[in-house]
């Protein structure tokens, strides 16, 4: 006897379709299958990719700050040695030509990392180039610090740490987009360079303090911009492949802030 001929159906068509060949006769699976099945994959695809992008961006930020931390530890280790070891101070004061050699090495490595994308994205050559740049810059910074008093250097390091930490945290938390000001900051940098050339010929202590103050302020703004370039949710952003370039930008910002603050304190104290 067919199901629709049994009692209780009254000759009306069954709301269930008859099982097809090979069916196990389980009507519940056919009746409720459409309600229980998950949404199609293409509807979740965008959401999954969003999670992947966030995880990649977080990994990129962690990698940048790890590289930056290693750079700063090496640089300020050089500063400590050049500041507290008297023999090293005497050596660099006598052999000032080593500063020029370090500057040439720094400039070449900076050009390689900035201009050759294939080098700064290829492991391990990107780390080699960044290490050479960091060592040469560390020697120059340590040599500059050796010409200042120990108290002046320690004070400059402390102020730099407080300023940079505050700017980085603020830039990562605020909703204001500093990256839109990149062009204005670049123009200000050119003006600062011209101002610096004038300060070479005009020997005035107040003028040099003003120049150093403007330089510290400008690179503090650059630090805010370069920090937001890591986030990926602003008008401008860096690709996760550019972790070496991102670390280099932050490193140069912090070093310039330190050097300008050191110049302000040194000029103010007459050292």
From TrEMBL:
**Protein topology in the membrane:** Multi-pass membrane protein
Q: What is its main location?
A: membrane
Which keywords does UniProt give here? Membrane, Transmembrane, Transmembrane helix
Q: Where in the cell is it found?
A: Membrane
Tell me which GO cellular component terms the UniProt record holds: membrane
Region of interest: Disordered: 1-43
Query: In what ranges is there compositional bias, type Basic and acidic residues?
Result: 30-43
Instruction: Give me the segments passing through the membrane.
Output: 64-85, 97-115, 127-147, 153-170, 182-203, 209-231, 243-265
Quote any Pfam family the record assigns: Bax1-I
Please tell me whether the keyword Transmembrane helix is annotated for this protein: yes
Q: Which InterPro entries match?
A: Bax_inhibitor_1-related (IPR006214)
The cross-references to PANTHER family, in alphabetical order and at most eight, read:
BAX INHIBITOR-RELATED, GLUTAMATE RECEPTOR, IONOTROPIC, N-METHYL D-ASPARTATE-ASSOCIATED PROTEIN 1B (GLUTAMATE BINDING) ISOFORM X1
What family classification does the UniProt entry report for this protein? Belongs to the BI1 family.
Record-given protein name: Protein lifeguard 1
